[in-house]
From TrEMBL, chains A, B, C, D:
Keyword list, A-Z: Amino-acid biosynthesis, Arginine biosynthesis, ATP-binding, Cytoplasm, Ligase, Nucleotide-binding
PANTHER family: ARGININOSUCCINATE SYNTHASE
Arginosuccinate synthase-like N-terminal domain sequence ranges: 6-169
Annotated ranges, domain Arginosuccinate synthase C-terminal: 180-398
Native organism: Pontivivens nitratireducens
InterPro entries xref list: Arginosuc_syn_C (IPR048268), Arginosuc_syn_N (IPR048267), Arginosuc_synth (IPR001518), Arginosuc_synth_CS (IPR018223), Arginosuc_synth_type_1_subfam (IPR023434), AS_cat/multimer_dom_body (IPR024074), Rossmann-like_a/b/a_fold (IPR014729)
Stated family: Belongs to the argininosuccinate synthase family. Type 1 subfamily.
EC number: 6.3.4.5
Name the record gives this protein: Argininosuccinate synthase
Organism placement in taxonomy: Bacteria, Pseudomonadati, Pseudomonadota, Alphaproteobacteria, Rhodobacterales
Amino acid sequence: MSAPKKVVLAYSGGLDTSIILKWLQTEYGCEVVTFTADLGQGEELEPARKKAELLGIAPENIFIEDVREEFVRDFVFPMFRANAVYEGLYLLGTSIARPLISKRLVEIAAETGADAVAHGATGKGNDQVRFELSAYALNPDIKVIAPWREWDLTSRTKLLEFAEANQIPIAKDKRGEAPFSVDANLLHTSSEGKVLEDPAIEAPDYVYQRTVSPENAPDTAEHVEITFAKGDAVAINGEEMSPATILTKLNELGGKHGCGRLDLVEGRYVGMKSRGIYETPGGTLLLEAHRGIESITLDRGAAHLKDELMPRYAELIYNGYWFSPEREMLQAAIDHSQARVNGTVRLKLYKGSAQCVGRWSEDSLYSEQHVTFEEDAGAYDQKDAAGFIKINALRLKLLAARDRK
Amino acid sequence: MSAPKKVVLAYSGGLDTSIILKWLQTEYGCEVVTFTADLGQGEELEPARKKAELLGIAPENIFIEDVREEFVRDFVFPMFRANAVYEGLYLLGTSIARPLISKRLVEIAAETGADAVAHGATGKGNDQVRFELSAYALNPDIKVIAPWREWDLTSRTKLLEFAEANQIPIAKDKRGEAPFSVDANLLHTSSEGKVLEDPAIEAPDYVYQRTVSPENAPDTAEHVEITFAKGDAVAINGEEMSPATILTKLNELGGKHGCGRLDLVEGRYVGMKSRGIYETPGGTLLLEAHRGIESITLDRGAAHLKDELMPRYAELIYNGYWFSPEREMLQAAIDHSQARVNGTVRLKLYKGSAQCVGRWSEDSLYSEQHVTFEEDAGAYDQKDAAGFIKINALRLKLLAARDRK
Amino acid sequence: MSAPKKVVLAYSGGLDTSIILKWLQTEYGCEVVTFTADLGQGEELEPARKKAELLGIAPENIFIEDVREEFVRDFVFPMFRANAVYEGLYLLGTSIARPLISKRLVEIAAETGADAVAHGATGKGNDQVRFELSAYALNPDIKVIAPWREWDLTSRTKLLEFAEANQIPIAKDKRGEAPFSVDANLLHTSSEGKVLEDPAIEAPDYVYQRTVSPENAPDTAEHVEITFAKGDAVAINGEEMSPATILTKLNELGGKHGCGRLDLVEGRYVGMKSRGIYETPGGTLLLEAHRGIESITLDRGAAHLKDELMPRYAELIYNGYWFSPEREMLQAAIDHSQARVNGTVRLKLYKGSAQCVGRWSEDSLYSEQHVTFEEDAGAYDQKDAAGFIKINALRLKLLAARDRK
Amino acid sequence: MSAPKKVVLAYSGGLDTSIILKWLQTEYGCEVVTFTADLGQGEELEPARKKAELLGIAPENIFIEDVREEFVRDFVFPMFRANAVYEGLYLLGTSIARPLISKRLVEIAAETGADAVAHGATGKGNDQVRFELSAYALNPDIKVIAPWREWDLTSRTKLLEFAEANQIPIAKDKRGEAPFSVDANLLHTSSEGKVLEDPAIEAPDYVYQRTVSPENAPDTAEHVEITFAKGDAVAINGEEMSPATILTKLNELGGKHGCGRLDLVEGRYVGMKSRGIYETPGGTLLLEAHRGIESITLDRGAAHLKDELMPRYAELIYNGYWFSPEREMLQAAIDHSQARVNGTVRLKLYKGSAQCVGRWSEDSLYSEQHVTFEEDAGAYDQKDAAGFIKINALRLKLLAARDRK
C-alpha cells in the first residue's frame, strides 16, 4: 500500500482518537479530515470541533454530523425487522453502527478528495473488521489505516507519553486507566475489558450506565403501547414520532425499568471469546414488541422462514458484512414479509422485564372464529385433521414398517 | 379402518377422558386399557385408578406410572441441549410431553394385545397430531381413535348429559365451564381458550398457577448455581440430583421469583393462530443457564450451526415429529456438540427475570490471555487481523469494482 | 361445503376430463365452464372447444388460451433463477405449471361468477395439492372439486361405462389402458405408472417422447450460446427471443441431442415414493447455462446463500406452495441476486450431455489479474493469506488446546 | 513465531517440493522430514525416496506411505454420504485430500519430534488454508511453514536458478513451463492456470488426463451395478471390494466412458474466482449411484434435511474445515441417516453420462402398493388427501382473506 495523502478519520474528540489524529499527521505526513458523528452516544460534539482545530485541522476538514435518524431508519429498524439476535442474546448494538460510520467516512473521502480512511479500533476486536469490510465494499480503492495494528504505542504509558510529547490535552480522568472500555450509541451501551475480564465474576453495578438496576426500578409496572407500520415502530402510546425519537423514548422507558441488561460471553469473528455487558433498553422493548406484532400479522410460513434465516443474518451483521450481497438478499426476503406487519402491541415493563401482554391489528391473522373452544359455525371441520395426520404419517408408517423388519 | 377390539386410552381420571372411556366402550364395544402417567402435572394418580375401576376397567388393564425421570432425561434434556424455542419464545412444554405418552400407549398396546390407542385431544389443536404421528411412527399398524373428531358430543351440555346417562361422576366444579383450559407437566403449565381468546386483552392474574407474579416475588434477588455435564444439568448449588429432581427444584426457584411467564400468540400446525399463557419457571432458568455454559465451552462454529438448526428442530417437535428421522439427525448433530459442555453457571433470579451473571468451566474456551486489553505475551498478533480482513474483503472489492462500472 | 353452482373445470378435451365435465353436470347439477390452456403440451386446443360444445357447454363458458409466454416468463424463469432442483435432480416441470392453471381457474371463476373450480388430478398425487393450495391462496372462498377423490369410478371399466352411458366419445386408442401416464408442458414431459412402477427395471425406450436416445443423437457435438439478462435467458446464438420461444428452441436443441432424460424415484408430498421418467431437454440446458453465467457474475456470498436456500425453495414449489409468503420471500432474495447476472454461456451438447465450456460477461467478477499464476502486479498480497489463516484457525487452536487436556 | 527446528514436509519428489526442501534447510537451517503419500495420484513413490536421500534426508526421516484405503474409507466415503457438491457441481476432489495429508504431517511430527510442518501450496489458493487449518486443529502448537508465501522465488527463472545453485536435479520436461497446473489423487484430477485462465475459451482436449472424451468413448452403453451398505459402496457388479479398490474400478469405468468431466469457475475461499477443469470419473458414478440408492431407502424428511445441510457441509470441506466441530456435527447427522442405505443401483454409462436406470433394496421404502394406479386394496384412502389439503390451506386462506381487505 502506498502512503496515504489525505485521510478521513473517525474522530470522537477523545484522547485515543486525538492521539491517532496526531500520529497520522506525523507518521504519514498526511492531511487529516475528521468525522465526528452523533449516533446518540450521549456526548457533546462541539468539543470535538475545538479539539480538532487545536490539533491543526482546517475548518473545512472538520465534519460533525447528527446521523441519529439515518442510523435508526436505515440500519437499526431494518435489522429489527429480522428480530436479529447474535448467539441467542446479543442485540448487535455496536455491530450495526459501524457500517454507517464507514459509509460516511467513504463519502466524505470522496467529497474531500481523500484517498484513505482511518479508525480507532484495535486489532483484537470485531470493529476493525466491520469498519474495513464496509469501507472496501463501498470503495474498493480506498486505503484503510488502523493505527492500533500498526503503531508501537502498545501500553497506556506510551500513549500518554505520545500525547504529552505532542501537546494533546489529557483530561484528568483519562490519566488513570479506565476500569473498563465503553462503546455507546442510540441503540446500546457496551462495556468490556479490565474488571469484566473474568466471566465467572458478576459485573459490578457501576458498570451499568444507561439502565437502573431492576432493584432500583419503580415498584409499579408501567404499560406502553408501540404501534408498527410495515414492521417499523411509528408511534408510542398513540403518538407518532420519528425513528430516532421513538428509540430515544423507548430507551428512557426501558432504562427507567431496568430493561435490556445483558451479561454475555460471545464468540468474536476474529476467533476468541470475549465478555461484554450490554445495555439495550429501547431495543429490548422494540424486539419484544416486534415479535408481538408479528405474532398476529405474519403468516406461520413467513415467520418460520424468518426464524431460520435470522441467525445467519445476525452473524453477517456481527461479522461486518452489512454491505454484502448476501445480507441484502436476506434483507429483501425479510422486508418482503413486513408489508402487513401493522398494528399495536402493549408491553408491561417491570423491574427488568418487558413483556408483550396484548396485541391488535387491522391486519391480524388471528381468527377467534377458528380457534375458539366454542362452536365455530363450520369455520373448521375437525374431520379434516384426520386426513391431515394420516397423510403426514404415511412416510413415517412406511419407515416404521421397513425398520421393524 | 376396521373397528378396534382393544384400546389403550391416555386416561387422566378427569371428566373428559372418563366420558371418552365410556364412549369407547359403548361406541366400539371394545375393551379399554387405561394409561395414566405422572408427568409432573401435580395431580394424584390413585383417584384415576378408582375411577377406572368404577367404569369397569379390569385391574390388569389399568396402568399407572410415574414417568417423570424418563420424561426429563429422555425428552426434556435432549431438547434443552438444542436451546429449542418455537417462534422465538415458546419452550415447547406441551409438545415435548406428547411423544412420551404415545410411546407408552403403543408399548402398553403391545403388552396387552391391544390394536388401538385413543387420546383426548380435540381436532383443532396440535396435540392430536403429536399423539398420532408418534404412535404411527412407533407402530405403523396401530389404530388411533380420536373421539373428539368423531363423536357428536360437541357442546358442554351434551357431554354432561352423556356423563349423567352413563353414571360418570361429575365433580362439582366441573358442572360449570372452566374459564380456560389447562395442560400441565413437570416442564410447564399452559392455559388457553375462553377468557384468553382475545389476544389484545391482558391475561388476568388468576390464570397463572405455577408462578407468583413478579410483583409478588421476593424483593431480594436470589442467586443459584447450576452445574452441567455434557449439556445436561446435573447439580444445583453444588448438590447433584436426578433429572426430574433438578427440574422440580428449578420450578420451585423460578416459580418463587415469577420467572418463565409467557403470553404468546403462536401458529399452530393445523393452520390457525392461537393464544396461550405459558408458565415454564424451571425451563426458563435451564435455558438461560444452558446458553450460559455453552457460551464458554462451545466453539463458535458449533454454536452458530446449532443456532441455525434450532428453529427447524423446534418446529419438528412442535409439529409432532419427535419420532422422525430428521429430528433424530438433528439430535445426533446437537448431541455431538455437547461432549464438553461442562461447568457451572450462576443465575440471578429477581422479580420475573433470570439472568446469567457468571459462568466457569474446566472446559472453558474463553482465553483471558487472548482477549485481554493488557499485554498478551504474543498470544495474538494484531497484524494477522489485517490479512484476515484483506482476504475477506477481496470478493467485496471485486464486486464493488464491478458494480461501480 | 354447500353444493357448487357454477364450476370452472381445467379441461384438456381428453376422455378423463370429459367424463369429469359430465360428472359435474350430473352429480352436482351445476353449470360448467371449461378452461383449456396451451402450456406447450403439444396438443391442438380447438378439438377441446368442439368437445366442450358437444357436451353442452355454452360458447361463452369455453375458455381456450395460449399461456405459454406467461408460463415461461412468470413461472419457469423465476424458478430457474434459483437453480431449483428437487431431491437433487428433478427440474419441477409438472410442479411449476399447476399454479398458473389454478390462477387462471380462479380468475375465470371471478369473471364468470363461478363459485368453484375443478381439476382432474387423483387423490394419490402431488398435483391435487398444488392445484388446491394455489386456488385457496388466491381466493379463500373458492370451492374446489376433485372428482377423483369423490366418485366411485374407480376402475377403467367403470369410467368407460360412464362415458358410454353419457355419450362421451371415446377415441379408439383410449379403449385400452395406456401403458403409463403422461403429463406435458413446455418445460417437460413426465411419464409414470404401470410399466414404470418397478423402480428396479430400466424404463423402456418407447416411454421417451421428447428426446431422442443419446445413442440416436448426432455423432457430432453442437455448441450453443445462451445469453442472459438479469438471470433470464434472452437470446440463443445471439438472436433475441421471447421467453417461450427460447424454451421452445432449447427443447429442440436438447431433444435432438438426447439431453435432459431423468429416471427418478421421488418422495411425494402425500407421503409415498413414486417413480417418474422426466424429459426436460430445454430446462436442462437452461440450468447448466444459468449456473455457468452465475459462476462468473455472482459473488460467492450470494451464490452460496442461494445454494443453501434452494432446496427449501424447490420443496415449496414441489409441494404446491408457489403462492405462499415464504416462496415469495425466497423469490425476493433470489431476484435481488440476479441484477447483474448478465452475459453469455457456451454449451456443448453431445449424446445426452450439456456442458458449459465457456462463459463471458461485461459484469464478470472473474479477475484474471488476481487468479493468475503469473505476476499479478500487486493485485494480491500472498502474505495476507497468512493472517487470514491464522485468525480463522484461532478458534480451532483454542479448541484443540482445550480438547487435548 | 520462533524459527522451526525440525520440519515435516509434504514431499512429492517433484521439482517444486525439492526446492522447498532445500530452501527449508538453507533458510531455517532446520532438519527436514519428508512425507510422501500415495493418494492414488498415479505416480511412483520410490523415486521420491531417492530424491530425498540425494538431498541429504536421513533414511529415518523419509516417510513414504500408501494411504489410499484410509483416504477413501475415512474421507471420500463419508463425504459422499452427504452427496456433497460445491457450488452445485464440484465434487471436492482436491479439498478432501488435504486434511488427510495434514493429519499425517502432524502425526509424523509427533513421532519424530518435529515442531513444524511445511507444504507446497501457494498463497493464492485454497490448499494453504486446508493444510493449515487442519494442522492447527490437530495440534495447536505446531508451526506451519508455507514457503510460497515467504520466499522471493517469485518467477520460474528464479526457481530454476535456485535449483541449479543447489544441485537439485531438474527433469528435462520441467525446464519449460507447464501449460497448466495439475493436482491428482484417487478421486480426481484437477487442472488449472495458464492456458485455462480465460474462462470464455473451451479447454483444449489435451488438458484431460483421466477420461477419454465422450466422442472417443465406446459407441455402446455399459451397465454397472453398485451395491451399498450403510451408505458406502461395497461391491461392483456383485463383487465385494475394499473402498480404494472400488473407487479405482469406478475410475476405470467412468474414465472409459468419458464420465465426470467438469469445466468450472468457482469462488475460492481466499476471495477470487478461478477456473478449473476437473475429472472425477469414479466419483461421478458414485454420486449418481448414491443418490439412486438413497431415493428408495431414505425417508423424505431425512433426504430433504440432508439436501438443505449439504451446501454448508460442502463449503466447510472446500474451505478447509474438515477438522472442525461444525463439520463433525453435520457428519453425525448425515451418518445417522445412512443406517439403512443399503441396496444396489444400476447405472448406464454412455459417452459422458452416467445415469441411474434401476435400483432395488431389501430396505426399500418404495411401496408399489401405495403408489400404484391400480386398486391398492385400501393401502391409501384418497379422501385423507382432502383433509390434508384443507388443513395445509388454512393459513393461506386466512392470509388471502386478510390480504384482499
